[in-house]
Amino acid sequence: MAKLILLFLKCLVLFCSVQAVFEDQVGKFDWRQQYVGNVRFAHFDSQIQSSKKVLVATEKNVFAAINTRTGELLWRHVDKIGPEGNIDALLLQGQDAVMVVGNGRLLRSWEVNVGGLNWEIVLDSGSFQFASLVGHQEHVRYVAVLKKTAISLHYLSNGHQKWIENLPECDTVDYQSVYSAGTGEVFVLGLVPNSHITVVVYSLDDGEILKQFTVEAPWLSDLQSSCSVVGKGMLTCVDQHTLSLNILDLHSQPNINQITLQSIGLEVSADFRPVLVSSQPNAARPPLSEFFLQIGPDQHVLLQLNKGQIQTLRDFKPAMLVSFATSGEKTVVAVMSPKNKTASSINLFSAETGRRLLDTTLIFTMDPNGGNPEKLNVQAFLKKDDSVGYRVMVQTEDHQLTFIQQPGRVMWTREEALSDVVTMEMVDLPLTATQAGLEGEFGKKTAIQDGLMSMVMKRLSSQLILLQAWATQLWKLFYDARKPRSQVKNEVTIENLSRDEFNLQKMMVMVTASGKLFGIDSKTGTIVWKHYLENVPSNAAFNLMVQRTTAHFPHPPQCTLLIKDKDTGLATLHVFNPIYGKKSHITPPLLPQPILQSMLLPLMDQDYAKVLLLVDDQYKVSAFPSTKNVLQQLQEVASSSSFFSLMQIRGSSDLSTELIWEVVIPAEVQKIVSVKGKRTNEHVHSQGRVMGDRSVLYKYLNPNLLALVTESTDQHQERSFVGIILIDGITGRIIHEAVQRKARGPVHIVHSENWVVYEYWSTKSRRVEFSVIELYEGMELYNSTVFSSLDRPFPPQVLQQSYIFPSVISAMEATLTEKGITSRHLLIGLPSGGILSLPKMFLDPRRPEIVSEQSREENLIPYAPELPIRTEWYINYNQSVSRVRGIHTAPSGLESTCLVVAYGLDIYQTRVYPSKQFDVLKDDYDYMLISSVLLALFFATMISKRLAEVKLLNRAWR
Amino acid sequence: MDAGPSAGVPVQSNGDRFKIEGRAIVPGIKPQDWVSTARVLVEGEEYVGFMRTDGSFAVNDIPSGSYVVEIISPSFRFEPVRVDITSKGKMRARLVNYIKTSEVIRQPYPLQIRASGPHSYFMKRETWGWTDFLMNPMVMMMVLPLLIIVLLPKVVNTNDPEMRKEMEQSMNMLNPNPELPDVSELMTKLFSGSKGSSKAGGSSKGTRPAVKRR
């Protein structure tokens, strides 16, 4: 019976071969982190006192609401990438958020509580200049949008246009700003640089021009950066040449009142351009008459404009950042000033008097590995005793948001740099000290010299240590189990990070476009370390390489990041420890020449660091690390190593390169889009495939094979094509070439084992198509022991098949496992946010059109033109991942398990089991059943034994 | 070659821009509860639209061409629709068919897209029920013969010599080659042996009298 049940269990395992997530696995080993990007506009929702929302619009074209208590997203809307989804302005009025999108193309209004759209209208074309809310008689009902040539006024309630008026002389005058103060007039401020200011006053009711005048201002070159309206229509501009404030009353006759800064006792730092900051808390009322003037990198002055006179309310020095905040009728200013090297303090001051408010100090601790604070967003609120309380959201250079409550408690931080991960690696965690000590017992040579006795002692002691560790673990488990679940802290710190028995937990080293590096624990998603690299060019390309893994204790693991300026080609190296994030003490070589290419060789120096080769624009090669040992090794292998960029290294004291092959791809017809080699850590378990007739079809496993993707330069839909060229990287021989006519990119490609899968857009049928190429040597191997590109007389057999895919895709990668026994799946990121795990079985050029006995024997699926998308195959169920840019796969210690990280706007980490969990007991393994069956059998034997005894006795009596 | 009257290159220049309108309905769910997570995608992420608080949507600024319009929601499944826009701005909607791209099955325009239910992301765990176990063909195959072996000797009176003769005759007919061990015989041997008969290793004829004596 037990056998039967086991058999039945086995059958179960075998039959459900389709991969999917079970509902009880949700959140067990997967996590998602949602990001929004670097914040451009932030507004606190202030319609009710207890509101806990901050609305942000970001550089990633995302509009979102963040819960201020937890830092989690309440809702998020992701617009399209690029300038067409760019958010130009965000205005908040009550529960409506008005947004200008796409250089003034669209005007949108959102309902901030639900996160739904109120309305969206298309604006007339014209480049966007300015948007502002316009109020009338204490009510804000309109929004004004200023474009290069026209100004339009829209109702806030439905977006309908109230009026649109052309701007006079718009070809010469650069209109930059709109001002209104609830008086029924709309002032449009324009400028002819270094000549004069033009002011046009429109009537709010019908758009009629009420007044129009110009004022000479030859010193003014930009309105928005140096001017601001202060008080009742006083346009205040700062002139950086004469260092004076120029005040123009917009309501009365045009003449400029000039007040030099010296006369009010202010001195501007040398070479500093003064900046004016004012505040208009309510669009239906004039702005405050108090304003900030920044007169030095760390000096701000709070000034007050009173009847044409300027009064200094308070001089803040040093002060890095200042901000206005309003709650109800009260307006306060928050000033951030440095306290010591690692902390700064934020204080509140009354805006009207400049007096410091008591008990409003807040300490902001700066991360030594982070950037400097960039912006303050203050949420002020009235406490019960009518005093002002506040919380503050600090934005730093490294795109971090920190939300702080008094007296300096950090409520949450968000690392928005992670919305733009460029490249990543997964590094094995180190062994714990005890584990490492045990390992040390074997490797050392000294052990043998010590003699037998001490070795036995050592063995026993290490066994004892293990026992002790096990006991403490058990005790901890027992101890934790008694505590309520909420109290059990599972904090991940550097100290308790260690490799688990199946190597499922790894360190994710992520490099972001802003130049901030992160080390994230793959199990929980906790950020273990972060490091902000300053002075990273904005257009940098990053290449992350693991030079030394954790396997070489006591040498620390080592990662090298190559940061290259895309324009100049100049590069720098950053060497760090991937587990702790610390910069290595090894000084990387300075690279004075632009770098063309880098390559990590399998060679190691005496410290087990892999050698990194860099080729500069003179085709000179430099090695890192470049010790004598390395150079010697390099000379030995130099004749045989080659860069795939068609160069060979020649061994000499200074390494040089030599051209060995060249393939010319006519640039006027097609351009190379991508070059894909195979992954170096990939293993192929099976050399061939067993056919239905029991013969073997051997795979063509060329480790030097490169797949080149080309796209036609002609973009016309009838003539465009996508080409794929398979080239041997050593000899330059073209193994195979395929052209997909009437197709265009973007092309996503996966190159692994003996197959290449690529995806393109078919312009003819307007659909996405997949194509798979598989290479086979044939029925026998030419040289089964070693593969050499130079000695392969027969070209491989090429099989190809294409399919329709019913969705556009955004990223593609194949699963990867330790030994390559597990079947492969393709992981496909879809724009819908799902990550589809498509069995490679569906992309097999041997799928037959007519099913035969042999194909059934081989388990081939009959050909169907359309590939299925089933939501059961989504590895991330409803945890959508927006804008997937890349998918990183890494093997774990278990053959069945592959670790997957999808990154884009969000980060999602999970594990996949392409062939089910065949090497561990499944989660739903029924311990109850198996034990109950065993128990039942045990009792059955006991009872039957007893019965048999009774029967025997009876028979003996007879 | 191209499907539909409106198909063609999306206008590259600043041609007229149009708007795709429609409404999405999730039966039984208020729009407020799902619109914040939903989006309208036109041809992948080429054009993006958002849901209004009442479940309607409009994607603005789209040049003429043919597009697949999808409503994306992590909780509900919506069927995609192909929308053709002529260069004059005439619209029509049809079912998406990637294989026969020119086939036209009209859909209402402005779009009316009903959710066809929640997404099914999860596999069902195999749960253990005794009925599943008993109804398994393997178990059935084992249990039925067992029943026959145990019950048949009780139903048929083996003490009757005529009956026995008849049975033996039929046995011989079924088993033309007496050299081969009979399966059923083997089975009976096995099971009657396990029934606790003391005579181990007795031939089938040896055990039968034991049964008879009972």
Describe the structure.
The complex is a heterodimer of chains A (958) and B (214). In chain A, 38% of the residues are buried. Chain A has eight helices and 63 strands. Chain A has 958 residues and is mainly β. The longest helix of chain A is centred in the middle third of the chain and has 31 residues, at 452-482. In chain A, strands 49, 50, 54, 55, 56 and 57 form a six-stranded antiparallel beta sheet that branches. Helix content of chain B is 30%, strand content 26%. Chain B starts with 17 loop residues before the first strand and ends with a helix. Chain B is α+β, with helices and mostly antiparallel strands and 214 residues long. In chain B, the strands form two sheets. Chain B has a six-stranded antiparallel beta sheet with strand order 3-2-5-7-8-9, with no helix packed on it. A four-stranded mixed beta sheet of chain B has the order 4-1-10-6, with no helix packed on it. The interface between A and B is large, with 67 and 54 residues.
- Counting copies of identical and different chains, the oligomeric state is heterodimer
Strand order of the largest sheet of chain B: 3-2-5-7-8-9
Radius of gyration of chain A: 35 Å
Tell me roughly what share of residues is in helical segments of chain B: 25-40%
Total DSSP E strands of chain B: 11
Biggest sheet features of chain B: 6 strands, antiparallel
Number of helices of chain B: 6
| Number of alpha- plus pi-helical segments of chain A | 8
Which ranges of chain A are low-confidence, i.e. pLDDT below 50, for 5 or more consecutive residues?
A: 1-17, 646-653
For the termini of chain A, the CA-CA separation is: 34 Å
